[in-house]
Amino acid sequence: MLDAEGTSMLAEVDREVRPSRPGTGVQDLSGARVPSETEASARRRGGRARRGGNEPEVRKVWINPDEDHARENRRFPTNYISTTKYSPWNLLPKFLFEQFTLFSNAYFLAVGCLYAVDKITPVFTGGRYSTLWTLTVVIVVAFVKDVWEDLNRLRSDRAVNRHATRRLAQDGDEHVQDTTWARVHVGDILRIEKDEAVPADMVILACSSDDGVAYIETKQLDGESNLKVKVSIPDVSDHFDNIQGALETRGYIDCEAPNELMYRFNGSITILQGEEEVVLPLSYENFLLRGCTLRNTEYVLGVVVNTGRETKLMMNIKPAPRKRSTVEKKTSYYYFVPFTMQIVFCSILAVLSRSECRRLPIRDAWYFAQPDENCAFLPSFLRFFTYFLTFSSMIPIALNIFIEIARVFHTIQVSSDGDMIDESTGTKSEARTSNLTTELGQVSYVFSDKTGTLTANRMVFKKCSVGGVVYGWDLDDAATSSKVLPVEKLSSKLHDQNRSGNLEDVIGEEFFKVLSICHAVVPEPGPDGQSVIYQSSSPDEVALATFAKAQGFEFASRSNKEIFVQRDGHEEAYEILGVIDFDSTRKRMSVIVRGPDAKVKVYTKGADSVILSRLAPGQSLNKAKDDIGAFAVEGLRTLALAYRQVDDAWFDQWSKRYAEARGSLTDREREVEVVADEIERALTFVGVTAIEDKLQDGVPDTLRSLRQAGIAIWILTGDKQETAINIGLSSGTFDEDMDIVIINEHDVPGTSAQIDRALGRWTALAVETEGLKKYGLVIDGATLHFALAPELETKFINLTRMAKSVVGCRLSPKQSLKS
Description:
Calcium-transporting ATPase, cytoplasmic domain N, 36 strands, Calcium-transporting ATPase, cytoplasmic transduction domain A, 26 helices, 6-stranded antiparallel beta sheet, alpha+beta, 37% helix
């Protein structure tokens, strides 16, 4: 699935310069609301204000504040973080509470205390305290283990809190001062250097690149190694492009109150210029998360908006409940069964002892208590506990000791296993929670995404379909045929000065323009200083831009306002009028440009299901759909490309609406999507691209081994159904002899009928093959939504339990998360 991020700026109309004046709030073209006098005074006092009755709180962060506003910034939490489980004052109470909520520990504590009571204990030697001593050993071992694990967390926290960073400061001789992460506060302006981690949530004010583009790596946050693009707003970076200007510029940021939404940020920044204010909208592309790392950018200046426990990263780290392993749960159950028997036996014996005591000939036995004393209620009641101690050996206390020793041994084994090392990085395995090492043999299901997990995430352009003709690039002789032409036949014709200019040529030219313009790629100098390397958050985009470059449509460079394409030895400049970013909901990206011919065009690429539904009527798409299906069967990732030419007057009106939507502080995503939808319709289809993403080495063998171990495999992907099935077969998720059922419906009744048929088929096959047949299931995202409806959920779960392998295709990120 395409994962592109890019610059999302409209030229000119995003900027607002206005005088500060009292009065009621008004709305201008940028969408930034001019506050009323009451609101303005409240905002200047700092803190949080509300934009409406049901709207979220807004945080105000002052930039280079005076003394009063600095105090407002300081009331937010510090950037000190702690992930430890215990603290010095709650260590013993919390630990003992957790230990004695375990049935086994509570049981042996009760037994040990009863042995100490003279009227109850059957043992009067020093051995009566053996249970308490043994329990103490168990508790001490668990205490040492918990403290050791928590000390490791404490050391990790200290290393993070003491990590160095640089802060701009107006006091002192040095304007750029060294500090630690723990001493960072809201409102601080930090200078983040290349390959340095970001210590807190920040808004970018300026960066080293002329075009205002910075690259970050989020591997520590989401495991993705692809670089993400972040941008600074030109009208903001002009004020912060040097240290002196950064220290003298005053203003404030209004943004969302801290929340756990990792991929969302809305706000506005106000630059104070005497009696004037410059208000500009902020979005996620101007926002840096704590924990991400700056790459391929010399430095970034940013102002801190969230610190410590209020950063998005820390708000997504929930206090971990005590994890109880399967062994603990089963042990508690096995303790409870003999404990129940023990209670029953002791109760019976206590009742019998009282009812029969008067009939026993003990009056002449001086060493027994006399009946009047021995048969009273209290002695009989205490005798119940004597019997309880006699039967206490039914539950072995040594089992707890052996389990704790085994856990420690397993932890050491996992951490020191020489075969569990990533050879490419040298990373060793690490058991961070010893209680869960016993879970390794209890795994029944493995859920995996495709891109970057099963595949190498190295995209290579293979084929395309333009004008109903399939072209291949860098294919071997076996892959080429009369149905697949070398792509050079298309590109060479477009570079011919005497070409006819027919519809086929126009479509081909627009196809390559989409590839060279509609992306968030930025060229970087290669190691040799001569070559150019394309960088992007999406490897798909790098593959497409590289292919376009090889065919003579070379993306050369970009600035905040223009993108340059080298073609036929000369450079073409395209004015960037707007960029509508890709996201997993939209599944498309659009770039609006004014070309050398002064025409305004919208270039769009995205999922074929989305693009084909937005085309202008009257276009023949049968051949394109066939080609898309053929590419998917080969396991190739497909993207559809289209464009639209718009009238200048219409675009001017649209750009104003789009600027207003982008300037909204609340519900910005919905408003932007509504306006963006207007311009991304009535498109003209130009072609389809097909990209290969090969499986990583060892993936098929690994998945087959997991299935042989009785583990069910679930592959979750956003790819087309045909592509997902092909990946399932090539990765070893499906076998050739496996009975594969495809459920693809459009409503609840249809889904219910399909599930019933699949259950009936597999039940019959299980009888015929005596349970030897293996089953596979393929389901798309829309059908999965219906299958998880309350009336179908139980049936669907029963079906998936019968399947050894499941492939979910066309899934949204939210569905993958819930699966």
